[in-house]
Amino acid sequence: MKIKRFSKKPFNLEDRIGAKPVVCYPNSNLKNDNLEVLLEARKYLVKSNEIIIAPRDAKTFEVNNGNFFRIESVEGPQVGDLNLFQLNNLEEKFYSGKTRALYGTHISVGDKMYSNLPYLRSLATITWDTLDWYGYDSDGGSVHDVIGTRCDPYTSKLLSGNDYHYCCHSNLTRALVKEKNIDLKKAEQIVHDVLNVFMCTGFTNDTKQYFMKASPVRPGDYLEFFAETDLLGVLSACPGGDCGSEHSSDAAKCYPLKVSIWSVDQKYLEKIKISKTSSYNQNHGID
Length: 287
Fold this sequence. Notes:
Elements: H1 13-16, H2 35-41, E1 46-53, E2 58-63, E3 68-73, E4 80-86, E5 89-93, H3 96-103, E6 112-114, E7 122-129, E8 142-145, H4 153-160, H5 168-180, H6 184-190, E9 195-203, E10 210-213, E11 222-227, E12 231-237, E13 257-263
Antiparallel strand pairs: 1-13, 2-12, 3-11, 3-13, 4-5, 4-9, 4-12, 6-7, 7-11, 8-9, 9-10
């Protein structure tokens, strides 16, 4: 955590600190040319399906390329952990680390959810966020983060010594096994770092540790996405509830979440630029 210092300060300290920060991945070339089209198209959405995810559980859902989906709070403040896969190739899945490197710690309208290497394409674009008014608070906290990994039974065991089976990692794994008939070992291997939907998080100012605070989400709030390929989604209603106190326990008050699928006449999407997998030749310098 870099709060314990054992080495001596160098004699040329002033020459070695205080350099101007440089953004690692300038994203000006990622201008979202589709957003204007999507914001217009979403005015004509028609709901085609919806599912309810019970507290401390997860469910899968499918979204066809060109459709929209929403994750919605329905009864009380509740956060959710979202995994996304390319429906016909589960090896292609959401890459939270690269999405974070490109857009920052928290994402919202216009930001894309990129897939892992070697694919690196947008799986989905966020098209509406009823919590975008929150911005960043005085602690540096915001909603919809791509910082946290997902609560899991292994970390719970490490920190508390307890076995807990209804954390998000286990919920996501269980949903893939039960609903998609995926082998348990395989399912756990493909579950990946999540988009923490509605979760309010940041890094502490002193130790830079990942923190959470009670989510500002309320019934009726939703986060909306446009599917840029056929998608398999898996959403867990986190056992932390609004994550204002703890997670991976039965103590927090938890509520269900709703996922709804929305279609639109394709005439409204004629100008959409199609998301494509990376064109890198994958030679990696080997002649």
